[in-house]
Specification:
Layout: E1 8-9, E2 19-22, H1 25-32, H2 46-49, H3 51-66, E3 76-79, E4 88-92, E5 101-108, H4 117-131, E6 137-142, H5 147-154, E7 159-166, E8 170-178
Parallel strand pairs: 5-6
Antiparallel strand pairs: 1-2, 2-3, 3-4, 4-5, 6-8, 7-8
């Protein structure tokens, strides 16, 4: 499997219809600057264009300027075809490292949480990781007080492997799962 700009679809599209769409570089750079730029106005939800996501856009804009090959791996829009705008963001933090590890990240608009979007996005990311020959381990880092994300990853075989300090998010617990041990329904 080669990572491309094509949408990533849930492994069971009959059950979960969402997909993850690449954010084009020019859109990502505009969002990082606090502008909509060439983003389709229908996709410009207050959540995606607001302060809660701006730091992520800045980080990813800088990342793809420095490492363009990360672009198809990183933050994508979570698109639910039943909604007019993306419901959140999901992707990897970058291409697999030398050990074959990728880290997942996802966030859903607070007004649209508790509807299965994070679960569907995580299952899509895990499926992509399982199918890619360079990925051997998937990592998730979660704030100790984020019980919803912890409960979500528990269903897929992740195990706690340590802690780290994140400059933005503070203390995080590190969880990992081998691609061969991922439990997808």
């Amino acid at each position: 499997m080669t990572i491309t700009d094509a949408s990533w679809y849930h492994p069971d599209p009959g059950r979960v219809r969402l997909h993850l769409d690449v954010v084009p570089a020019d859109v990502l750079h505009a969002l990082a600057a606090g502008e909509i730029g060439p983003l389709d106005p229908a996709y410009a939800s207050p959540y995606l264009t607001g302060p809660e996501c701006r730091g992520l856009w800045r980080m990813r804009s800088k990342q793809i300027r420095e490492t363009p090959t990360d672009a198809p791996w990183i933050t994508r829009l979570i698109v639910d075809p039943l909604r007019e705008a993306p419901v959140g963001l999901a992707g990897f933090h970058g291409a697999p490292d030398r050990a074959g590890m990728v880290e997942v990240g996802y966030r859903v608009d607070p007004a649209l949480r508790r509807r299965g979007h994070a679960r569907g996005a995580l299952e899509t990311l895990l499926s992509v990781a399982q199918r890619h020959p360079d990925v051997r381990t998937v990592r998730a880092t979660i704030s100790p007080d984020n019980t919803a994300s912890r409960a979500l990853i528990d269903d897929y075989g992740f195990a706690e492997t340590g802690e780290q300090w994140d400059e933005v998010d503070g203390r995080e617990t590190i969880y990992e799962v081998s691609t061969s041990a991922i439990r997808l329904s």
